[in-house]
Amino acid sequence: MLVRAMAKKWGVPFMWMTCHPDKTEGQMLGRPDIVFASEEVDKEVKTIQMQQFRPSAIAYAGLANEPIVLFLDELHKLRRDMDALLYPLINEREINLGDHLGPGEIYKLHPETIVVLALNPYYEGGGIERVSPAIRQRVATIEFEMITEASKLMDIVRANVSGLGPHEAVVQSVCEMCASLAKVFLEYKKRAVVSVTDANTVRIKANLSNSIRHINEAPSPRVVVATAEAIIAGQTPARALQQCVFNAITNDLGSTGVALKTIAQDVYSIM
Q1: Helix/strand/coil for 18
Q2: Which residues contact 64 (CB under 8 A, 6 or more apart)?
Q3: In angstroms, how far is CA 170 from the centroid of its own chain?
Q4: What is the pLDDT of residues 124-169, one digit of tens each?
Q5: CA 75, CA 123: separation in Å to the nearest integer?
């Protein structure tokens, strides 16, 4: 969502691709599709079969005559033998589509095109170690910490959701609650040094004291944006929180679910 917000701010197209272990070269660069067309031959209409190239997000970056933001997500899941496809993209900022469009079909990225690679450094199958040093030496690396500030969550919501209108105040409360939940999660699960001195966060700690172990993840910006979208679409704030946040961060919809609902209602007046 951050990369999408960047593209929106700059007013350029946003293209993305999610990597996975079964990704093939054809899927990475694009593939030819079989299409059918009709043509008249000797006053007889016949159906002919043709191949038409369907570009992937990577191929589009090379074919586009304009700057774009290209986002390759879940890089840690890509097979090692696919790394070679990324070298020209990163080194020479070019894409070789010769096997797909014909010999010598090499396309340069627009000078202002930005390529962003994202990965989870703690992924079970190998995170940062999964990406070869040859690639890591050719990019600027930024590590993102968990967001524990409501203002930053609100900025992400505004960048991804248009027209909060009369819902802005309740969405702000959702952001404050999720930021405080993230602080409590960090303190309990990660033993991180975070500020939990504000009154609302202290009240959250008290409500979750017996069930914090059942919180599996802190609320991510994605679920906060989803909550805002659900509220705008007509869901009650309490139901939107339940569906988008509470059900996502815990498997215990009993005592932990009750504690989270109590926090929403009593601490943040989200009904």
Answers
A1: strand
A2: 13, 110, 113
A3: 24
A4: 666 677 777 877 888 888 887 788 999 999 999 998 898 899 999 9
A5: 10
Instruction: Tell me how far apart the alpha carbons of residues 122 and 250 are, in angstroms, rounded to a whole number.
Output: 20
- Predicted model pTM: 0.65
In which element (H, E) is residue 48 found? strand 44-55
**Angle between the 199-208 and 168-185 helix axes, to the nearest 10 degrees?**
60
Q: Which amino acid is at 208?
A: L
Q: String of b and e for 96-108 (b: at least 16 CB within 10 Å)?
A: bbeebbeeeeebe
What string of DSSP letters covers 81-127? GGGGGHHHHHHTSEEE-HHHH-TT-EEEPPTT-EEEE---TT-TT-S
**Domains along the chain?**
2-28+57-136 (3.40.50.300), 150-267 (no CATH)
What single-letter amino acid sits at 81?
Answer: D
- How far, in Å, CA of 270 to CA of 174, rounded? 8
Phi-psi region of 202 (alpha: psi -120 to 50; beta: other; left: phi over 0): alpha
The predicted-structure confidence for 204-246, as pLDDT tens digits, reads as follows: 988 888 888 899 888 999 999 999 999 999 999 999 999 999 9
- At position 84, the amino acid (one-letter code) is A
- Residue 250 is encoded by which pair of tokens? 């815990």
Helix (H) or strand (E) run with residue 36 in it:
strand 30-41
CB 178 within 8 A of CB 245: yes
Beta carbons within 10 angstroms of residue 169's beta carbon: 9
Give the phi and the psi of residue 7 in degrees, each rounded to 5: -60, -40
